[in-house]
């Protein structure tokens, strides 16, 4: 059961504050909430228009909600702090890094070593959906995020990514 | 006093001797009197100690009684708050009690400082502490002396505990604006108008332009100036999702932790 912080029950939290210093505090509080909410529910991607109706941004008990504009500002702040990345600025979709790509990369590579999979080739689909990864944090993770994490490993010389028809088809060889 | 022009040197010396004799008698009298008072005070303190042991439960459980007892102690020169390692601490655990309350208060101030602008009313602190105490009642009490429900906290207790924090460092102070007592944890000044607005909003923790105009009988300009000042000082937040723009004051009311 997700527990909301006190500011979520405070009506003015849902109005973008005009005074800069107060707005800074407000945005920080919202960013923290977005990260812990996404971590709790294993949400990797947010689409601004879609999530505007979620209870994350709508508190019916006090009859307040965060506007689409304000949500956009919160996510922009998240991105600028390095906890997210815009996938599609026009469609307002962004990846949420409640764990950063390099941290995911580490987790994945640890599993590769532990399970003796170095030198083997896997598809992204297998990494995400194989029975062997069911217990693991990156099971069913977002494909874009997985790709980014693997790209980190590639830049570290720990793997090579191969061509494929679709993202899921992409192969990766761990070194 | 010796008078007369024909005093001369002998006269002066006599005067001096007389004064010295008086001083000598006075000082030995003072000394005796002082010692007598000391003995009486010691006896009084012993009796106070017996009293404290006998009425320990009452002192712990009843805020009014505790306040009176505290005043009594201070009047005979014993400050239970300061003597942490003394026998008062052992008999009553009162030193510990205020110390722990002080810690609780500073925790709350720090946790809410972000939104409250460093000002929180004594009533609000009491409400938050009472709420936490009630929650704790349902859990098992541990061996450590924590604030349990049986220690009912009064507003006096809170103010006394804040005085204790002040001994450690000047960052906390009790201030009064418009008839409301606040604990201030960051420096700053409130004007008369600002404090009036806060006082007028005490009931709900929020207000609106129209409400202030009708309640304070000020002009719209004066109200707006006051509200803008409070916004700038980060003591107020706006809320545009009601029927009219509302101004909320975290110092007066803020939701609690679940």
From TrEMBL, chain A:
Keywords: Cytoplasm, Protein transport, Transport. Belongs to the VPS25 family. The keyword Repeat does not apply. It comes from Galdieria yellowstonensis. One of its GO terms (biological process) is protein transport to vacuole involved in ubiquitin-dependent protein catabolic process via the multivesicular body sorting pathway. One of its GO terms (molecular function) is structural molecule activity. Pfam families: ESCRT-II. SUPFAM superfamilies: Winged helix' DNA-binding domain. It is found in: Cytoplasm. GO terms for cellular component: ESCRT II complex. Its main location: cytoplasm. This is Vacuolar protein-sorting-associated protein 25.
TrEMBL record, chain B:
Pfam families: EAP30. GO terms for biological process: protein transport to vacuole involved in ubiquitin-dependent protein catabolic process via the multivesicular body sorting pathway. InterPro entries: ESCRT-2_cplx_Snf8, Snf8/Vps36, WH-like_DNA-bd_sf, WH_DNA-bd_sf. It comes from the Eukaryota. Coiled coil: none annotated. SUPFAM superfamilies: Winged helix' DNA-binding domain. GO terms for cellular component: ESCRT II complex. Belongs to the SNF8 family. This is Vacuolar-sorting protein SNF8.
